[in-house]
Every structure is written in C-alpha cells, then in structure tokens.
Structure to design on (1213 residues):
C-alpha cells in the first residue's frame, strides 16, 4: 500500500504526469503543422534569436503580418492578430514550455552545439496545437547533460524535424565522438550551470 | 490636498516575472476560486469525522495546487524595435550631471528597462569605475515617491496648464525686462542649459538669477578667481604625484571627481616588488575622512585651523627656498591644536624634494583665501600643470551664496513677486538665517523637482523633473570634456527634463529636450566631419571625440590670498561645528534611496542615521557617551543629535553629516536622522566656531555594522610599512597546514576562479558594495534589522584602526565570500544546499536551503546572509524593475552570499563559446571588480599562469585570511603598506600605547568586542 502511494506520488506529482501534454488554447489557433510542417518554414524565421540569445522569442505581430498582410487577412481566426497590428495592442500568447524562474536555460548554447529543436520540443511540425512532450524536469535535463552524445546532430540539421541519426550504430558512435571533440561539448552538471 | 496618493505602477508587460504572475488578476481569481465548494463547509460546525475528511481533502488539494501549472503569458512586441534581441542586454553611454562636473556612465538595459550602471571606460571621469552614487542612481530612477504630476496650489494640473501660466508671465514681465522675476537654480556645467539660461537673461535682463547648492564648489571657484582673476575648474592629476598633502580635502571620498582621483592616487600606490616606490599622503583634517584614513600621516586639526596651517606651510616652504608668498600672519605656533611641528616639517621636506611631483589639495569647506594660498603654493612647487590642472570654467553657473542673499534681500524689500526654483530644495537646505520658507510665502513660486519635497509643498506650482536616465542633456566635465546625457527610458511618471523647462523660459517654446541639446551641439560638432555621423559617434561614446581643451596655467596674482582667516579667540574650550555631506545620501537628495541609507558610512559604519561626531577627549570632557543625545546650538539653530565617539576626530570639533532629517523625501528617507541644515548659517555655511554643546538626559539608538575597529590581536589585515616590506617582502605570509582529514576535491579542470584584493589600494569607498547590491538583487532590510546584524550585503568592507588611539590610521578590507576550497559551510549543511562546483566556486542552492543557518555559524568570515523576512517582496512594485533578470530573487528562509557573480561567469563562457574560442583573461569581470576605482579587486582563472589574478597571487604580499584553519580560500589579499616619513614614524611609535607592538599589530581602537556578522542572530 505504502509502496503504491509512494509510487503514485512519484509519478503523478512529477512533471512527467503534470506537465507533459499541456496544450493551452492560444488567442489565435496557430498551427505549427501547417506552417512548419506543410509549408516547411524554418523555425528560425519566427524564433529568430534562438541562435543568439537565451530566449528563442515568440515573434512580434509584425512577423506574422509579413505574410498575413496579404494572406487570409480577413479570416476571423486572425482577427486578434490583425487587431494587434492596427491597434498596437500586444498579443498575449500562453506559454507552453515553462521552466521555473530560477532555472536559466539558454537556447543559443544548445542550438549552436547541435542539439535539435525536436529533442526538447518534439514533432512540433506535426502539432495542430502545440503541447509539451517532454517533462522538462531537472532529472530529464541532467540525463542529457550527463550523456549529451546521442542528442547531437550535424549543425545544419538542428531545425530539421525529420533528421535521423545514422542507422549503423558504429557510424553513429563515430559521429558522436567527432562532434563531442570538435564542438568541445562539455555540458555543466554543477548546480551553478543553470541556477544562480 | 497635499499630495496625490501614490500611484503604484502596474508591472509592465514586456518581461516575465513571478511577481507579475502573482499580481495577475486572472491568476488571483483562479487561486481564490480554485475549490469554491469547500468554502461553505467551513461554516458548518465541525465534528471529528468531518474534520478528518476536510483535512484529507485539503492535503490532497495542497498537493494538487502545488503542482498545477500557473498560466503564464508571453507578450511579444507588436513591432520589434531595431537592434533589440530579447534576452541580450544593450548598453548605452550617458553622463550623470553633478554640480560643475559630470560622470561618464554606461547603462545596461534589458528590453528597454535600465538595470545596472557602470563607469564608461572611454570617459576620463570614471574610466570604467564608479561611485556608490552612480550605482544607486538606478534605484532612484524607480523611486515610487517621485512626483507623478504637475501640481498647481496642491491640485493635480498638467504641463499644458503650466505652459499657459508661463506665457502669461512672459508677456507681463517682458515690458519691464523681467523686473520682479527671480530664478534660483542649482549649479550646472552644461552647454545646453548655459545657452538657455543666457537666452533667458538676454530676453529678461532685469530678472534676478541666483545659483545655490547646499554642497558646492563655491569656495574653490572663488579662491581660484582670487588667485588668478580667472574662472577656473581644477582637476587633480594624482597619478603624477609623489607627495600629496590634503588640507581638509577628502579627495578620495566626498570631493567631486573622487573616482578619477582614486584611480590616479592608486597609480602611485602600486607596489609589486620590493624595489617599487610608493607615493606618500599627508592629511590634516578635522573629521576622520576616507582620505585621512588612507593617509600615511594624519594631523587632526580643527577646520578653522587649516588656514593657519596653510600659512605656516607657506612660511616653512619659503624658509626652505621655495619661492612662495608668505601670508602676513603665518607662523607655525599660530596653529592651535598642532602640538609640535614634525608633521609640518616632514611634509615640507617631502614637498620640497618632490617639487613638481608634490601636490597640496585644499578641501571645498575651506574659505577662498586658503584655496588661493594653496594655488600659490602649488604654483611655487611647480605642481600646477603637473599634479593638478586647471581648466576654464565654461558653460557653467557656479553656486554663489551671495547671489542667494541678494535674492533674499530683493524679496524682503518687495522687488520680486515671482520666483522660479530650478531644482534644488532650498526650504530644506538653504542657510537657516535666510528663512527661505517665510521668504516664499508672499511670492508666486514655481519649483521644478523630482518629488513633492519640502520646497515643492510650499510652492504654487510643482513641475516634476525627470531623472537623468530619462532626459536629454549635456555636461562639460571639470576637465573640460563635453559629454552627452541621453535617456535610457521614457519618463516613468511623465516628468519633464531641465532642458525642456529652461527652454520654455528662454523662448516660450516647448521643444523636446532632444531638440534643445541637438541645437546646442550643431556648432560644437562643426569641423569634425559629417555632423550627423559625429553626433552619433558622440552618443555612442558618451563623449565628444575631439581634442579635449588644454589646461591653463595662469600666474598667481601677487598678494591675492592676503591674511589667512584665523579665528580670533580659538581657545581650547571653544567648540567648532563642521558640516559635511553624507557619504551615503550626499546633500540629502539621495535620502529616499534605500541602498544609500543602508550603505555603511565608510569610517563610522553608521547606517540609517547621522550623529554628532566627537573626539574621545571632547566626549570625556563633556561627559558624553556614545548614543547620548546632545543639543547642538550654532548661530541660533538648535539640533538634537546622538553623539558618536570617533577616534581621530580633532578635539573641540563636532562634525555632523548633512542630508538627513528629511520630512518630504518619501517613504524611505522621511524622519531618518536629524536635519543638520538647521545649523547652517550664511556667514559660516561650511564650518564655524561658537558651537554650544549641551547634554541631554535622552539617548538614541545608533546602528553601526561594525561597532569596533580592533582585530583583537589577530592578523586579519596584514599591515606593514614600505621599509618593512623591503626588508621582509613576505612578511604577510600565513601558515597553512599541509595535511587534512577530508578527501581532496578535484580542482584540476580549467577554469578555476579566484580573486585577489589589494588592501594597499582599497580606499574603502563602498563602490563595490553598491555595485554588488545592484548586480545581485541584494535586498535592503532597514535600521532595526541591521541592528540585529541582519544586513544583507554580499560584500562588506571591514574597517580597522591602527596606531595610536588619538590619531589612528585606517585599513579597509572588502569581505566577500572567500570561496574556500575546504569550505566549512559545506560540511555542516544537512541538505547539501551549499556545495562546490567544478570551477571552485562555493555555490548556494536556494531551492535546497531549509534555513538551518548552520553554514553561517560555521563560516569563519561571517559572509553568509540569511533572509529572515521576505525582504524583496516588500519592495514597491516599480522598484522591482531595478532587479537584474539574470539573478534569482531570494525568498524568506533562504541563505545567500557572494556567488563570484555566477551570471557573469556564465555570460562570459557563453560569449566565448559563441565566438568559438576559449575563455580569455578579462572575459569575466565581477561587479565589485568592475566598479572599483583603484583596481584593487582582480578576478580570474587561477589555472592560467598568465592571468592577472595568478600574477597577483605570486606577489610577496599575497596572503590568505585565517590560513591556519586550512579552509584554502580562493580569495586572497595583498598586504597593506604604509609609507611613513621616518621622523613622523618615530613619533608615532612613541605615541603608541605600551607595550610597543610591531607595526602590523593593531592597538584596539575603542569599544568592546562585539560579534557582528551575517545571519548569526
């Protein structure tokens, strides 16, 4: 009984259960499946600072309007966006991937070292509504920080959701070895790596 | 209606924070309504079964509530501003105006929100370092008590209404050339403001213009005028000086340009090898100042006797063959309080041999004649143009108390009916005998000020004045460089800049400050290539790139100084009052800044208070003990103040810090300390005789962060003379045990962080303390909490006294976490909340901390700080904007301490990674290091033998603190050196109490040993 309670708490109170699958309703039903999947717009077109800054950023209204100025401007689904563009009121998107404030995650550090978007965010290109697929818990972070090799990919495949590691394990291992050495991969496992 | 209720700014939407979340009404209601069905149940009478059921339910709910995700919004820009990448701060150069000079700063801005101020490396006024007042300006920007509205007769009005009022005045005064109008401004040195003031005067030539600062350069400007017939600014060049004699001149502390002074002074105090030479500093002063504490020799002397000392100095120099005019009343025996002339003779012999590398400095409290004489002395030594430079006083309105008196007289005789007060706070800080508040009564008055202060509350119109980080402006510094003040943010409360107000006065037009400044700079940028390019370059650099103006060196006008002002009957019994600005709140304008209030005075270590500072002998004579209230009566003014007994204070001299006792500064500063301006008289505004001190039966609590100055016989600050260092270069070496019981940590990986603090360079100025507070979101706790030893500063400056108790010298020791390799704190933490990382930094994991405080008890350096209350959450909403987003804000029940600026280490490493290179020395600069004017703090990788920190650690003066404990701290210190004159040193050793001690053993100063460290309470 005690073991069942403990086990239950272990699982049901963990981010694995509470956070994974979180898919809040957004002010505009933006579909990544359409934009990133079908139309193959690169992640960085909108999430422009992902290689420079800690924040990947949600794009300014302006970025959406670059296309929607002409495309489906009158669609009722886009009304909040068009309104934001004309009235200069900010969009209020709902954060999906939410780390605690005391964890200082940096997108650029990961992306520039060849960790793919898909590793943490899942198949965004297939999501009509974005949801969280990984627990984003500290243990989950540390799993990769302790053994980063399998999560590395060629630097030009970072945003490619379809990239698969070489099927030959030896070839994959060789790639990991060379990537680890070339890119000086040395992720911190100290507290001070992410908390300050 | 006195004042509009204070408006709390709701948190702006452009960044995320927990606080923002907590205040989100949506989230609030969500929380409140989370389990509405349980609410009625609580009204019903409880039986045991029900009670258990509810308890069970609440337990489950608590668990669920804890893991439920709060909805957090991301609010992106609508139109992204150019060149802003969210998450990457921008830096802008600007200039902080300060009287007749200004300081070049570099301000960090996160998505449009300024958060941190540093010195501007390209600007000679700071050269990258800073002052506590610069650092604390960021908190003043977010001061919720700054005024939000134009007020007219106490009612909320607006800028348009004032403009209309001004137009009417302008029309009605124009026919008479402005007769009946008076303007009272503070001093400024600004091409734009000067141009506008001149335009105003040209239009209304008969309007009166007075300029008054409570703490000013007036005496110096008048003295230089006397000496040379020219309007001059002075700028010491201490880097060229070998011998400096400071006459009541706190050039390292309270005087303007203290940052560049300290930089220059430090250059002469660099000692790395035994053969290196070092400059020598003499100080004669009434109150033990920062400069006096750092002096090799110090003579406590009443401020009223400094003139006599200067005259005796001239006479002695002339006797040694220096061609200086001797004042008629010069004589060493006329200097009361100087028991023998060894000090004078030693200083003279040093100055004569130093020649143009000598320098005499005269403090701004001293009357103009003394300044003129000091000019003559420097001229005769050849120091003018070498160790001190003079620049024409241009584009400036200097404070002149006579102009204020004339204005007061004009008001008395009814020839003025409208008074415009531009900045300042004369009701609070004008000399008491002018009775400024009564003066204002019959007049129509306008006060331009940043808050509804003592003056504004009595004025008919109050115009909110923007902070310098919100305004356009410009400054000509004391050495003549032109630099720009550019805004970092729109005025938070809709205030207007001084350029805008003075522009309106000049030509009735309401133009933005930018346009006013740009108009001024058109001609200034001429001949510099493309004007717009040069303008942008100047904005970027913060300073005009053109050649700075050349210093001038006019001859001394013979006989200018005349007789030195020597008080006629300066008997021993007669007391002297000396008024000085506070190291923290300055002249009182910083009173509502909690960082400055809680910043310990560098010498007394008092916080949140001012006191009547007495020498031990004077206190004994008066029968006064520390904390006893005394009544000070001076020229009709009476103030009751607690006494503070300070070794080194001149006997018979009572010093009181100005800037306290505000009644309308805001929620922080009101009622803190007592207002010493009530003792200020226009005849003797800075110091004066005829002070009467009366005892009272009352006592007050004075809170000092370091009550005593003794090291209790331990070698905490290692301290020797230059001579001792030459004979025993490694005199400071400490014994460290070589064996230990605990397993060795692995510190082989690069980088390994370490720090060295050169105690020979540290002046104790507190810049590092404030810089750390700003960088690391260090909370303020208030006077009561500090009295319990609960101050939160991550780096404190321990002040020790050495030498004879009558005339001690000071030593300052900055004390951050020592980052011990064998950290005693880590071994006692039951939850591993404090651990080492692989780079040798002792890190604090806030989320693990359960608040046992064992670590603090076991820390031999007492550098750990505990959050006894939720200090940060109590801050006003708008003040939270000053927080650094890269550092966690700590909550109640959590221990915290210096982290070696982990966020900067992380930023430096990431920058290096992005650029695809390894870390270089200098990539990581801690906040304290960056702010230090003397470069006393060096930080870096100790595994790199070429790094500056490794080099410093190889110096013979290097030692670690309490090495015998085998803590192996990463921090080490370089021993402090004194460079005494042999004759004076012999006398000093005589004066030391028996049994004679070696020079680095300190005699206890006073007071009982008190344990006072963080978190212990």
């Amino acid at each position: 009984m005690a073991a069942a309670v403990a086990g239950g708490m272990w699982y049901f109170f963990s981010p694995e259960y509470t956070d994974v699958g979180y898919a809040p309703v957004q002010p505009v039903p933006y579909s990544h499946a359409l934009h990133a999947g079908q139309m193959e717009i690169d992640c960085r077109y909108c999430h422009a600072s992902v290689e420079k800054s800690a924040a990947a950023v949600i794009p300014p209204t302006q970025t959406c309007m670059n296309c929607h100025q002409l495309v489906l401007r009158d669609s009722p689904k886009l009304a909040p966006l068009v309104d934001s563009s004309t009235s200069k009121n900010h969009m209020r998107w709902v954060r999906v991937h939410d780390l605690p404030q005391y964890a200082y995650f940096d997108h650029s550090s990961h992306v520039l070292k060849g960790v793919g978007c898909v590793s943490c965010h899942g198949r965004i290109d297939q999501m009509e509504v974005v949801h969280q697929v990984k627990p984003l818990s500290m243990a989950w972070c540390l799993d990769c920080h302790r053994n980063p090799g399998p999560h590395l990919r060629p630097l030009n495949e970072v945003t490619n959701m379809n990239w698969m590691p070489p099927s030959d394990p030896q070839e994959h291992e060789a790639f990991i070895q060379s990537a680890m050495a070339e890119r000086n991969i040395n992720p911190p496992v100290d507290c001070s790596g992410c908390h300050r | 209606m006195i004042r509009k209720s204070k408006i709390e700014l709701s948190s702006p939407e452009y960044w995320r924070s927990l606080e923002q979340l907590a205040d989100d009404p949506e989230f609030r209601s969500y929380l409140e309504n989370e389990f509405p069905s349980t609410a009625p149940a609580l009204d019903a009478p409880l039986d045991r079964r029900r009670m258990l059921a509810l308890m069970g339910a609440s337990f489950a709910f608590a668990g669920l509530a804890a893991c439920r995700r709060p909805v957090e919004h991301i609010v992106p820009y609508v139109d992204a501003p150019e060149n802003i990448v969210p998450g990457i701060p921008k830096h802008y150069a600007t200039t902080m105006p300060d009287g007749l000079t200004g300081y070049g700063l570099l301000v960090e801005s996160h998505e449009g929100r300024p958060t941190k101020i540093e010195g501007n490396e390209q600007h000679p006024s700071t050269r990258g370092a800073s002052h506590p007042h610069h650092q604390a300006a960021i908190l003043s920007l977010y001061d919720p008590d700054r005024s939000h509205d134009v007020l007219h007769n106490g009612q909320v009005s607006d800028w348009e209404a004032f403009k209309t009022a001004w137009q009417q005045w302008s029309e009605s005064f124009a026919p008479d050339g402005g007769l009946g109008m008076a303007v009272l401004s503070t001093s400024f040195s600004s091409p734009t403001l000067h141009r506008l003031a001149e335009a105003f005067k040209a239009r209304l030539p008969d309007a009166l213009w007075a300029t008054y600062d409570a703490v000013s350069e007036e005496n110096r400007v008048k003295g230089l005028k006397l000496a040379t017939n020219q309007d001059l600014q002075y700028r010491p060049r201490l880097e060229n000086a070998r011998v400096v004699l400071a006459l009541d001149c706190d050039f390292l502390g309270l005087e303007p340009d203290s940052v560049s002074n300290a930089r220059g002074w430090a250059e002469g105090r660099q000692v790395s090898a035994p053969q290196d030479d070092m400059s020598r500093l003499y100080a004669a002063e009434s109150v033990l100042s920062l400069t006096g504490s750092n002096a090799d020799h110090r003579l406590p002397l009443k401020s009223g006797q400094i003139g006599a000392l200067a005259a005796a100095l001239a006479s002695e120099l002339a006797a040694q063959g220096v061609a200086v005019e001797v004042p008629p009343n010069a004589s060493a025996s006329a200097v009361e309080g100087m028991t023998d002339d060894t000090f004078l003779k030693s200083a003279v012999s040093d100055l004569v041999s130093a020649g143009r590398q000598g320098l005499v400095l005269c403090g701004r409290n001293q009357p103009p004649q003394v300044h003129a004489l000091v000019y003559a002395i420097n001229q005769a030594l050849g120091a003018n143009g070498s160790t001190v430079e003079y620049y024409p006083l241009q584009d400036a309105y200097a404070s002149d108390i006579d102009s204020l008196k004339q204005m007061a007289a004009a008001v008395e005789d009814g020839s003025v009916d409208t008074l415009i007060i531009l900045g300042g706070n004369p009701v609070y800080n004008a000399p008491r005998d002018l009775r400024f508040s009564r003066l204002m009564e019959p007049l129509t008055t306008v006060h331009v000020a940043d808050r509804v202060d003592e003056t504004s509350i009595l004025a008919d119109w109050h115009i909110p004045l923007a902070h310098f980080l919100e305004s356009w402006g410009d400054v000509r510094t004391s050495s003549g460089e032109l630099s720009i003040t550019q805004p970092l943010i729109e005025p938070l409360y809709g205030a207007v800049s001084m350029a805008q107000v003075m522009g309106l006065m000049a030509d009735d037009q309401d133009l933005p400050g930018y346009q006013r400044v740009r108009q001024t700079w058109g001609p200034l940028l001429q001949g510099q290539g493309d004007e717009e390019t040069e303008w942008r370059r100047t904005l970027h650099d913060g300073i005009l790139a053109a050649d700075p103006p050349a210093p001038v060196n006019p001859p001394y006008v013979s006989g200018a100084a005349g007789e030195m002002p020597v008080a006629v009957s300066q008997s021993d019994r007669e007391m002297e009052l000396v008024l000085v600005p506070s190291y923290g709140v300055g002249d009182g304008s910083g009173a509502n800044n909690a960082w400055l209030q809680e910043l310990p005075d560098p010498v007394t270590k008092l916080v949140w208070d001012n006191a009547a500072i007495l020498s031990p002998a004077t206190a004994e004579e008066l029968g006064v003990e520390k904390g006893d209230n005394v009544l000070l009566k001076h020229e009709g003014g009476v103030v009751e103040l607690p006494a503070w007994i300070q070794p080194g204070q001149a006997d018979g001299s009572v010093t009181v810090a100005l800037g306290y006792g505000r009644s309308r500064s805001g929620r922080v500063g009101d009622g803190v300390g007592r207002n010493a301006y009530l003792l200020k008289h226009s005849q003797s505004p800075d110091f004066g005789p005829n002070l009467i001190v009366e005892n009272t039966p009352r006592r007050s609590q004075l809170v000092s962060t370091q009550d005593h100055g003794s090291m209790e016989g331990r070698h905490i600050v290692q301290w020797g003379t230059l001579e001792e260092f030459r004979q025993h270069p490694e005199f400071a070496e400490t014994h460290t045990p070589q064996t230990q019981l605990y397993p060795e940590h692995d510190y082989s990986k690069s980088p390994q962080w370490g720090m060295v603090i050169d105690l020979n360079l540290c002046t104790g100025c507190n810049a590092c303390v404030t810089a750390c507070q700003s960088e690391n979101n260090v909370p303020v706790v208030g006077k009561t909490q500090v009295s319990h030893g609960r101050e939160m500063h991550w780096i404190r400056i321990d002040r020790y006294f050495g030498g004879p108790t009558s005339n001690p010298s000071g030593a300052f020791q900055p004390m951050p976490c020592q980052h011990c390799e064998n950290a005693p704190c880590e071994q006692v933490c039951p939850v591993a909340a404090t651990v080492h990382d692989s780079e040798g930094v002792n890190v604090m994991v806030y989320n693990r901390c359960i608040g046992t405080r064992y670590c603090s008890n076991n820390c031999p350096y007492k550098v750990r700080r505990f959050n006894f209350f939720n200090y940060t959450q109590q801050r006003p909403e708008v003040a939270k904007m000053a927080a650094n987003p890269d550092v966690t804000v700590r909550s109640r029940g959590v221990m915290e301490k210096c982290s070696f600026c982990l966020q900067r280490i992380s930023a430096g490493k990431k920058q290096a990674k992005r650029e695809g290179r390894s870390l270089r020395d200098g990539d990581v600069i801690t906040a304290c290091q960056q702010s230090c004017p003397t470069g006393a703090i060096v930080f870096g990788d100790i595994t790199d033998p070429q790094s500056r920190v490794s080099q410093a650690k190889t110096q013979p003066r290097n030692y670690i603190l309490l090495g015998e404990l085998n803590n192996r701290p990463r921090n080490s210190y370089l021993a402090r050196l004194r460079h005494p004159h042999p004759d004076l040193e012999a006398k000093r050793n005589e004066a030391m109490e028996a049994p004679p001690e070696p020079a680095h053993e300190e005699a206890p100063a006073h007071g009982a040993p008190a344990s006072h460290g963080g978190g212990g309470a």
